[in-house]
Amino acid sequence: AVTIATRYSVVREQGNLHFNPQISTEVTIMSYKSQHYRLLTSMARAFAIVFVSKACDAIYQDLVLRQSRGDHSTLAYGHITTASLKAWATQIAADGAEDARKCCGGHGYSVLSGLPDLASDVAAMATLEGENYVMYQQAARYLVKCVSAISAGQPIDPTMEYLRSTTLYQRCAAQGPEFLQPDVQLTIFRHRAVRLAFECHRLLEESTKRDKLSPDAAWNMHMMSLIVAARAHAEYFVLQSFVDHVARITNPSTRRVASHLCNLFALSTIESPFSIGALGFFEDSYITTAQLRDIRAHVNNTLSQLLPEAVGLTDAWGFSDASLSSALGQKDGN
After folding, report:
1. What is the DSSP string of 236-290?
2. In the structure, what pLDDT confidence band is assigned to residue 253 with cuts at 50, 70 and 90?
3. Whole-structure pTM over 0.85, yes or no?
4. Which pLDDT tens digit goes with each residue over 256-299?
């Protein structure tokens, strides 16, 4: 969907940003910030889905190998990883496809654009094979169990050791260009995930012990907080997978563009007012308003770096014109 909308946007001319009525030359709609911000952030999320799917496949293959030897120790982690990523990826895909359609204006609602079929197809995925809010709760239950084990001094799955993070009561110290460093981005995402998991554990403990609610009543009361925590865990895993994949790219040009995509994914997830769960980065004052301004400046600069690569990024997916079935998304721009 983003491929179609991007190819349409680089040839469709409409209006301009000149405040002089004597200048009537129109510009491509891709040149508008509101257009390329939406499309390039969606493009970054699309690549994030691909890269995290590879990491998820590796977890599954490792589980199969272990189970062939009678070792089922990673089954629970594999289950909650696939459950949370299913919920995350299908929501990202549904929202992104619908926004891509909107980016094409009225043409996006024409069957000839190919977008109505795409948008309706991916929208169903949020429900099929497990309703997303249910999938997130399965992951949340595992997170709470891990926090309970940590609080009791018990061991947890090695893959969840990040929950023992020591940054829980610290503040982000990054400034300026440091926000472009993968380690800094991962620390920010990890802090949010850890804090929200411990917060959910605290809420459930208070509701059952202090307020004398039953476990199921306490869970229902704090269900939205639990879902937010599960999504934060998923996005931390997604960013980790993105960073790891970029680090393995050997071609300098490809790695440069992939790094920009990774930066855009990470930083727009933090700063965008439309980013689900973004409040979690700020509600404990871990990131300040001054740091938020730095992050937004980096997002704008990263968009400028990626804008010349927009068409190339659509070509990278290797879609044939026949597979897109879109009058707006032809590879030759016609």
Report:
1. HHHHHHHHHHHHT---HHHHHHHHHHHHHHHHHHHH-TTSTTGGGGTTTSSS-HH
2. very high
3. yes
4. 999 999 999 999 999 998 888 899 999 999 999 999 999 999 99
What gap in Å lies between CA 122 and CA 97, rounded to an integer? Answer: 8
Exposed/middle/buried for residue 170 (C-beta within 10 Å: 0-12, 13-18, 19+): exposed
- Residue 13 main-chain phi, psi, to 5 deg: -105, 135
Taking only Cα atoms into account, the Rg of the chain, rounded to an integer number of angstroms, comes to: 22
Beta strands in the chain (DSSP E): none
Decide if 124 contacts 274 (C-beta within 8 A): no
In a 10 Å sphere around its CB, with 0-12 CB exposed, 13-18 middle and 19+ buried, how is residue 322 labelled?
Answer: exposed
CB distance 172 to 195 below 8 Å:
no
Query: Mind listing the pLDDT tens digit for each residue in 192-247?
Result: 999 999 999 999 999 999 999 999 999 999 999 999 999 999 999 999 999 999 99
N residues, the chain: 334
Both structure tokens of 291: 């740091």
Nearest to 245 by CA among 81, 53, 43: 53
Reduced to 3 states (helix: H, G, I; strand: E, B; else coil), residue 110 is coil
Q: What is the pLDDT of residue 25?
A: 85
pLDDT at position 18 = 72
Residue with tokens 């907080």: 225
What's the distance, CA 119 to chain centroid? Answer: 18
d(CA 7, CA 18): 24
Q: At what angle do helices 33-68 and 252-271 cross, to 10 degrees?
A: 100
Per-residue pLDDT tens digits for 42-89: 999 999 999 999 999 999 999 999 999 999 999 999 999 999 999 999
Closest residue by Cα to residue 63 from 51, 72, 53: 72
Residue showing tokens 């200048």: 23
Q: Measuring CA to CA, how many Å separate 67 from each of 76, 158, 159?
A: 12, 17, 17
Instruction: Pull the structure tokens for residue 99.
Output: 């926004």
